[in-house]
Design brief:
single chain; about 325 residues; globular
């Protein structure tokens, strides 16, 4: 597959128009934090009061803190010791400097040598939300739940549309990297977190791949060059998981058959069809065959292996194209 020069994309996303978000500069310092000395009830950089640890990522720990200077809640992410984690942190900082206060993208407020301060996002990760939805309603797929899933994916695509227009790919789209906050009206606001993997992937050594395998596009899983369309593929797999409550391939991110993954995706099989069929069949039995077919076509165009050949299903060429397809479906039905 020839590499696509995603750096030639328009730099101004169409939906944002002439009103780009405020380009608030990140407050920079040369401070370095000793991760082992961080405790609840203590301070980070003599400014951020640590309330509790809220997460452990692949290369950093995250703490819920109170910014004593602005009297606001923040999340402070501190890299673990070592050249690899520090390099990943620098990649993430550089990505946030480009993205600014973008729509549906977490905002970086400050950064040091080995830590970043992010806006604190209310809500929960999409992975936790998916578990809650399907814990008590396994097999129940009505129009409201399907449209709610599409609304979340529309917001994810909007964030990607903005980022891709600024030459940033995420390269690690998955439910854990999407925060979902319930709005007063019942819908969810989706925010993309954990940027920086795209920059790490683009300078990787030949034959090496980074990311969560079960959400990778075929080109990413095959350690080949990726572009913005890889994010679209991964977003399609997230939509599948919201709808079905199942991982796209057997197992999870720490327990899966790598050979089976590559074999399936090289043959154009993005996910387990037998988990999606009950969802589509339920819509058909509810008198919504058009919605069922629309969902099937949407997933096919988000997760197809093909790019530009003459073929019924070619992967969406931009996040905007995918977003418009989602909005076209939502426009036909009352939004929950």
């Amino acid at each position: 597959m020839p590499a696509f020069d995603w750096r030639g994309l328009p730099r101004r996303p169409s939906r944002v128009g002439t009103c780009l978000p405020e380009r608030r500069p990140i407050e920079r310092s040369k401070l370095s934090i000793n991760l082992s000395a961080v405790t609840s009830g203590g301070f980070i950089a003599s400014r951020y009061f640590v309330l509790e640890e809220i997460g452990k990522g692949g290369y950093a720990d995250v703490y819920f803190c109170r910014d004593t200077r602005t009297d606001s809640n923040v999340a402070v992410k501190i890299s673990r010791p070592g050249d690899g984690p520090i390099e990943m942190m620098r990649d993430e900082i550089a990505a946030y400097e480009t993205l600014g206060a973008g729509p549906n993208i977490v905002t970086c407020l400050a950064a040091g040598e080995n830590f970043i301060v992010l806006e604190h996002l209310e809500g929960q990760s999409l992975s936790h939300l998916i578990t809650e939805i399907h814990r008590d309603h396994r097999g129940k797929n009505n129009i409201d739940s399907v449209l709610a899933a599409l609304l979340i994916i529309k917001e994810v695509l909007f964030g990607l549309e903005y980022a891709h227009g600024l030459d940033e790919v995420h390269a690690d789209i998955c439910p854990k990297n999407i925060m979902a906050r319930r709005r007063p009206g019942g819908s969810y606001q989706a925010t993309l977190i954990d940027w920086g993997m795209g920059r790490k992937y683009l300078r990787r050594p030949p034959g090496i791949s980074f990311g969560k395998p079960i959400y990778m596009s075929p080109e990413q899983a095959g350690s080949r060059d990726i572009d913005h369309r890889s994010d679209i593929y991964s977003t399609g797999l997230v939509l599948f998981e919201i709808l079905t409550g199942e991982y796209p391939v057997p197992g999870d991110s720490g327990d899966f058959d790598g050979y089976l993954l590559m074999s399936r995706r090289s043959h154009g099989l993005a996910f387990q069809e037998y988990y999606l069929s009950p969802v589509l069949d339920a819509l058909g039995r509810s008198g919504l065959p058009d919605l069922s077919r629309s969902i099937a076509r949407l997933l096919a165009k988000m997760t197809t292996y093909r790019f530009q050949e003459s073929y019924p299903y070619v992967r969406f060429q931009s996040a905007m194209e995918a977003r418009l397809a989602v909005e076209a479906i939502l426009g036909k039905y009352p939004v929950p």
